[in-house]
Design goal:
single chain; 81 residues; mainly alpha; 2 domains; 2 helices; 65% helix
Length: 81
């Protein structure tokens, strides 16, 4: 056993948790508790660059690069990378 107890306990020799539904509820609950603080800290530490014109320009650059990225991924798929 890897030392985890309760809903986080895993089957021996596997990554599967014993009670998937209870584990899922606990993970969703954890994210619900920390999401507000996470968002605040993300805005604070990024000097709010995750919103506004900085984020929009970043998204535009990503959208512009997508055709090239798709070609690279397709080439990798052909060579089984």
């Amino acid at each position: 056993m890897n030392g985890l107890r309760g809903i986080h306990a895993r089957e021996r020799g596997s990554w599967a948790v014993r009670d998937g539904e209870a584990h899922g509820r606990e993970v969703r609950s954890m994210f619900a508790r920390i999401s507000g603080v996470y968002d605040f800290m993300n805005h604070l530490l990024s000097f709010n660059r995750d919103h506004g014109p900085y984020a929009r320009s970043r998204d535009a650059r990503i959208r512009a690069a997508l055709p090239t990225l798709r070609k690279i991924l397709d080439a990798g798929r052909r060579f089984n990378f």
